[in-house]
């Protein structure tokens, strides 16, 4: 990482500049989390709408716990935790760091209060910013990568804060809006994409390299190592599938035709009574409407369709005489600038979330960050409108179980050549 490479000797002005830059970045990332929470009342921030979602207050506390536990406690001599009880409340899934409160019960944590969580954040921020200034070179070299991981981790939670509160407010009969405008660096809904017939990019067969390259730029451990993949000739759609496209699938009985669906997907259609993407509703005379972060609004036909499960994405692809791309097809095309409208919705791929050849998890407690989830998940690529600007990249691997719908997840089509 650039920060670590720059830190060679104490007293070097390059080191001071690197530390100042990191202090500014810490302040900016931490402030954005508070900006995302700002439109919400204390009541909004405490409720958990389903086991897969977390209350906003929990996100704010957990990201502080991460810095406290992974950076400050091991590396700052004499650091005193803000409240020893918080380790149990705000540990997410790190077995090596002790027991934790059950995930489905995070909405029961009315205490600590909203104000106490804000005080916790202030305590951690002050200690972290002071640590960046005074850590000696050896300590800094060990801690700087963990600080960067913590910032990237907090950016992931910033997107989760938005998707989780969107789900929460959708269950309120008043259908309230989260906010009229977005905090800096994110958007509240996908931007419109080009209209008209689907255009395709033809790709010849050959060997491509995917994954994050070694070097100073940040990447999660699941993006490495960079490796070669043999791709057969194929075609990949230039743009994602739009809401207008998806309405044609629905009008043609897409949710009533079992031949289009994977077995587990068809079971979900039946058990969950799916008839449209999540948050869509139809009412006369308004027609299709969507609950979004700005409240209930008419369906925008030229936005990418989103809030689809993998099952819905695969069924649409089958209906369209196509398939979902593999993550290698997607990444190689995106890295060459061949795809448009990336970053508006996460795009399901047909790739299982597996380790790359030669994958090595991080060391220490953060070894549990990604590798332990490499089973039963599907890879999504590209980023979404709610992903903080600058956080995603072509090699970024997001992952969810195939039935997940509450994320900003859509699809792009692919076909075999010929």
Describe the model.
The strands form four sheets. Strands 10-9-8-11 form a four-stranded mixed β-sheet. The chain is built from ten helices and twelve strands. It has helices at 2-6, 13-37, 56-75, 86-90, 114-134, 137-170, 243-251, 263-272, 310-319, 327-335, and strands spanning 200-203, 206-210, 227-231, 234-237, 280-283, 287-292, 295-298, 346-352, 378-381, 398-400, 409-410, 414-416. Mean pLDDT is 95; it is low at 1-10. It folds into two domains: 2-170; 200-416, paralog of FGE (formylglycine-generating enzyme) (Alpha-Beta Complex). Helix 3 (56-75) packs parallel to helix 5 (114-134). It has 418 residues and is α+β, with helices and mostly antiparallel strands. A hairpin with a 3-residue loop joins strand 5 (280-283) and strand 6 (287-292).
